[in-house]
Amino acid sequence: MSILNRLWNDEAGAVLSAEIVLVATILVIGSIVGLKSVRDAVVAELADVAQAIGDLNQTYSYSAVDGHEAGTAGGLFVDGDDFCDGVDDNALGQNSKCVSLATPGAAE
Q1: Pairing of strands 71-72, 65-66
Q2: pLDDT in tens, 61-81
């Protein structure tokens, strides 16, 4: 127990509070930059998922079927244009599905 008390009271290797503040500041700044990078990556991936879902072709059809005593006339569905599906929507350099990612230093 006396060894633990001596180590606890030993001030030969004391860390100055200024050093602690400097290290904590560097860690916080590094964390902010890292979280910004994670945010940008998540937004880009979610934009890709939104584009993939929007590009699903929902058109289906089946032709008429006639049996011995029954028949069906068939069916058809055509996927209409969604928001930002037009040809001219990407003319302004926007990403598909009108998702605009803001990047530092990008020309506007």
Answers
A1: antiparallel
A2: 777 888 888 888 878 777 666
Cβ–Cβ under 8 Å, residues 98 and 81: no
CA distance 31 to 37: 10
pTM of the model: 0.45
Residues 26-66 pLDDT 10s: 999 999 999 999 998 998 898 888 877 777 766 777 778 88
Domain range summary for the chain, segments of one domain joined by +: 2-98
Q: CA-CA distance, 47 to 31, in Å (whole number)?
A: 24
39-43's contacts with Cβ under 8 Å and 24+ in sequence apart are 40/101, 43/101
